[in-house]
Design brief:
Chain lengths: 657, 270
């Protein structure tokens, strides 16, 4: 295990950590990737050599210190090496979302002024070529997979392996330059630039320094006692700050192994094969896995189903308490051990969670049932709260203090403050340097003393000191009656139902709340199959009266639960509509990290919102859709609008107590 | 008459000389003449399409090439030699692989095993060694598995490697069939309606794969396809058949403006 070093004599950059790891854990695996059906591994020493070859190749191509290098593709060791190689030569890596369209990429490439891009394959090469002419400073592109690219003009296009070969060939000549550049890397020099998805307006480039990344990696690794023998599966977008911290920051700090899936579709199989000990996933993934387990159990024989139900009931009763180390009767412990043998163990194995020591979920609120399901199986799933500007970590749940409705206590080194309007502010060593070329936004977000506005409204729970997040601060508003309006709060309650994929609640400055609902095709489709309901398309399924009925029940359940909360009972949903298409990042309705962009949705579906409020029972509408390849089309539909029963405020709570 | 020089395509690819030539092929089933005196050639490295309305004799033509049918008249010339009457497996050993219009996979076997069967022509170990999985048999299997994995990677079907074929949707089955044919490392690949029954997206994927196979491995491809848009986009040269006769032969543009072809497709008053 690395000893924690203070910033005066410890490694002060990612390339420096790489050299330390190569000498300390030289022979142990740093990266694995499944290729041609077999897990290929690279040790830290091999990784060092590969990165050096690439760094020399980059110098050979003419990369200067301070250049930006865009990195586009799915999680692959080669692209992680690209990030570190870029840092080693004094350039700043800028990972981009690989599923972004050419226009979106053009904006980012232009904004950071990238001269170089390292991309995965033909698809990404094509996108960059498409926008290349608009980018004045753009020069060279390096690609990984040569397939389909043979006939392309190679004057400014290079194969990754060739760049490395040229680097190796010119080693004697260029090595002094590389070493000189590496020694110049300081604690406060730039480490990476990450573009935030931005629920409003254009993405902003968040500049993080080596100090941000290394300090955060150190304190968070200590917090969860991560060690060099840990295994992670890198499958979340490389452009997302979380992946950068887990797969580079913490991996280089502790020296653990980063495993890359064979392809995006094989993620679940690869997860099972690797059995990570440290795992991270947004709530969506946990939800999907739970749905799949439940669907499969529906197909199981009656005997197996009864065993499953029996032991799962027991796990719900005592599982979380055992995990938290609370006292549990011996009989229950023995029964739980039997359950582990019969049900929990095999189930965890099937899910790939057998060895998970620390698991995190973040990004969105997770449904209490889903959260408790995994915890009751003995999986140490916790929540954390963070953002790009904080280098992820703001709060996290310590072992033994895990609940589904809080996001935990401040991480080591983080100070929290709640402003008068309820907005959460923080200050930490992870606080970002600046928004690149955007001093105005930097000043808006970060004050002179280093306090950063999260944009989220929340409060610190008395007694436990845990932070609870209510909603985005700018989305929290008042209704016409003066009652508090917190759309996210109601939306999350709706989304906890497996049948509901996405919900958007309206009601700011209005008499009553209404909602858009997206159904979850997996869950509802499965239900339709079981009940012999035929449907030809997503759109047809959404309009099915029974689906409408089920969703109505869900909405009414949510209303009942909202009514219990005196503060938020005004957010009960009076009318709702099931949208005829899924909200999609390609249409700009969601961010790439699947957060709802309210303003855009309000503009785009103005006619439907109007119908929600004017009492009409139906609305005919036409919506523009964007396909993956950027072409546009449109779909028309007539949507039924339903009224939902509203529960009287406060009564439930009184009755319950 | 044999063209040894080849030609350059519109998109700048260099096509080699003639690799296969069909000379005056006539195929009869009893009194029915499925193919009437047809001649055409296939150049090394090109994508050659055979099109025509239903019942024109396209699949029969492909079956003649693959050795499944033996024409009553005419000759098949392959690599400068006249091909004697051969069994389909002998043709396969010559480096000609195919896919079928109606998918012909082993439904109960996994994708991996199905694709492995495509390597059959490359396996030479004896039965005893195979049964013991020892020596030559094991070395061969490792080598063959490597090739198969390359194909699986190429066609992006890693996620279904261990899935029984019977559980796959139609579009994927078609892709597995292509994988099996590719696993044989053919010099000529015969595709019988590779895109029949597919939606637009699946067709686009399949077109991409066909072009990539041709580009990456230099495989000569002979394909039958109904979707005119696809054919005209993909192929370098097209043979048009109608009622067993050849009514057109040339580049997609030439064929498109050929009056006989237009008549055959749009119908004409006799």
């Amino acid at each position: 295990m690395p000893t924690s070093s203070d910033d005066r004599n410890g490694p002060r950059s990612i390339p420096a950590l790489l050299h330390r790891n190569a000498s300390q854990f030289g022979g142990s695996a740093a990266y694995r990737e499944k290729d041609l059906g077999i897990w290929q591994a690279w040790t830290w020493s091999q990784t060092e050599a590969e990165i050096q070859a690439l760094s020399l190749g980059l110098i050979n191509l003419g990369v200067n210190e301070g250049d930006f290098i865009a990195i586009i593709g799915r999680n692959r060791p080669y692209l992680y090496w690209s990030m570190v190689a870029a840092q080693a030569v004094g350039a700043i890596p800028v990972p981009l979302y690989q599923d972004a369209g050419a226009d979106e990429m053009a904006y980012v490439l232009d904004h950071c002024g990238a001269r170089f891009a390292i991309v995965a394959d033909q698809e990404q090469v094509d996108k960059v070529i498409e926008v290349q002419e608009k980018l004045h400073q753009f020069e060279h592109m390096i690609y990984l997979d040569p397939r389909g690219l043979r006939k392309y003009d190679h004057s400014k296009l290079h194969q990754y392996a060739h760049v490395q070969d040229q680097g190796r060939a010119a080693k004697d000549e260029l090595l002094p330059d590389l070493e000189r550049r590496e020694t110049k890397l300081a604690y406060d020099s730039s480490c990476v630039m990450l573009y935030t998805s931005g629920t409003t307006g254009k993405p902003k480039g968040v500049m993080l320094s080596n100090r941000n990344v290394i300090e955060t990696a150190r304190s968070s690794s200590d917090f969860d006692q991560l060690r060099d023998t840990d295994e992670v599966l890198a499958y979340l977008p490389m452009a997302w700050v979380g992946d950068f911290i887990f797969s580079i920051g913490q991996a280089y700090w502790t020296g653990f192994c980063v495993n890359c899936p064979e392809s995006p579709d094989t993620m679940m199989t690869d997860l099972r094969e690797i059995g990570p000990s440290y795992y991270f996933a947004p709530p969506r993934i946990f939800e999907t896995q739970l749905t799949q387990v439940m669907i499969r159990m529906e197909d199981a024989g009656p005997f197996k189903k009864r065993i499953f139900d029996y032991f799962m009931a027991h796990a719900r009763k005592v599982g979380s308490s055992i995990l938290d180390g609370h006292s549990v009767a011996l009989v229950d412990r023995l029964k739980y051990a039997l359950g582990e043998f019969m049900v929990y163990g095999p189930l965890k194995n099937a899910l790939g969670f057998s060895s998970v020591r620390v698991g995190y979920t973040a990004g969105e609120a997770i449904g209490p049932e889903i959260f408790d399901f995994y915890r009751s199986l003995g999986i140490n799933l916790k929540q954390l709260y963070g953002q790009t500007e904080a280098t992820v970590f703001i709060t996290a749940q310590p072992d033994g203090e895990v609940r589904s409705d809080t996001v935990g206590v401040p991480c080591p080194g983080v100070e929290l403050r709640i402003a008068d309007n309820g907005e959460v502010f923080y200050r930490s060593p992870g606080v970002f340097v600046e928004y690149y070329k955007n001093a105005a936004s930097t000043a808006d977000t970060k004050d002179a003393e280093g306090w950063v506005a999260t944009g989220d409204a929340g409060f610190i729970e008395e007694g436990t000191g845990h932070l609870r997040i209510i909603d985005r601060a700018k989305d929290v508003g008042k209704m016409a009656s003066g009652a508090l309006f917190a759309p996210k709060y109601a939306e999350n309650k709706l989304k906890f139902f497996p049948n509901i994929l996405e919900a958007v609640v309206f009601g700011s400055e209005r008499e009553e709340c209404t909602a858009f609902i997206n159904i979850d095709l997996t869950a509802v489709g499965n239900w339709a199959e079981r009940n012999n309901i035929a449907y030809a398309s997503y759109q047809e399924l959404t309009a099915h009266p029974q689906v409408m009925g089920t969703v109505q029940d869900h909405v009414e359940d949510v209303n009942v639960s909202l009514a219990e909360d005196a503060m938020l009972s005004g957010c009960q949903i009076h009318r709702f509509v099931i949208l005829h298409k899924e909200l999609d990042a390609d249409d700009g309705e969601l961010t790439r990290t699947r957060k709802v962009r309210r303003r855009i949705i309000e503009q785009k579906y103005g006619d439907i919102i109007k119908a929600l409020y004017d009492g009409s029972p139906k609305i005919s509408t036409t919506t523009e859709v964007t396909y993956e390849d950027g072409r546009k089309g449109s779909i028309s539909a007539t949507l039924e609008i339903r009224d939902a029963k509203v529960a009287p405020a406060g009564t439930q709570k009184v009755a319950a107590e | 008459m044999k063209d040894t020089v080849g030609y350059t395509t519109a998109d700048g690819r260099q096509i080699g000389g003639t690799v296969m030539e069909m000379k005056n092929i006539t195929l009869r089933f009893g009194g029915v003449e499925a193919i009437k005196n047809i001649s055409f050639d296939v150049h090394e490295g090109e994508i050659r399409a055979i099109i025509g309305p239903n019942g024109a004799g396209k699949s029969s033509m492909l079956n003649v090439i693959s050795g499944f049918y033996h024409p009553q008249e005419g000759e098949v010339w392959y690599r400068g030699e006249r091909r004697p009457t051969m069994k389909p497996y002998e043709v396969a050993r010559q480096g000609i692989a195919r896919t079928f219009q109606n998918i012909a996979l082993f439904e109960g076997m996994s994708v991996l095993d199905n694709v492995m069967t495509g390597r059959l022509t490359h396996m030479h170990a004896g039965m005893f060694s195979q049964a013991m999985w020892w020596g030559k048999a094991r070395d061969e299997e490792i080598l063959n598995r490597q090739k198969v994995e390359e194909v699986i990677d190429f066609l992006e079907i890693q996620a279904i490697r261990k899935t029984p074929v019977g559980r796959l949707p139609y579009g994927l089955k078609k892709r597995v069939e292509l994988a099996r044919a590719l696993a044989a490392e053919p010099q000529i690949l015969l595709l019988d309606e590779p895109m029949a029954g597919m939606n637009v997206e699946e067709k686009e994927d399949m077109s991409r794969f066909i072009l990539d196979v041709n580009d990456e491995f230099g495989t000569t491809i002979v394909l039958i396809e109904h979707d005119m848009g696809v054919v005209m986009d993909l192929s370098d040269r097209v043979v048009v058949m109608d009622y067993g006769k050849k009514i057109g032969d040339g580049t997609p543009d030439e064929v498109r403006s050929n009056q006989d072809v237009i008549d055959a497709y749009l119908g004409v008053q006799h």
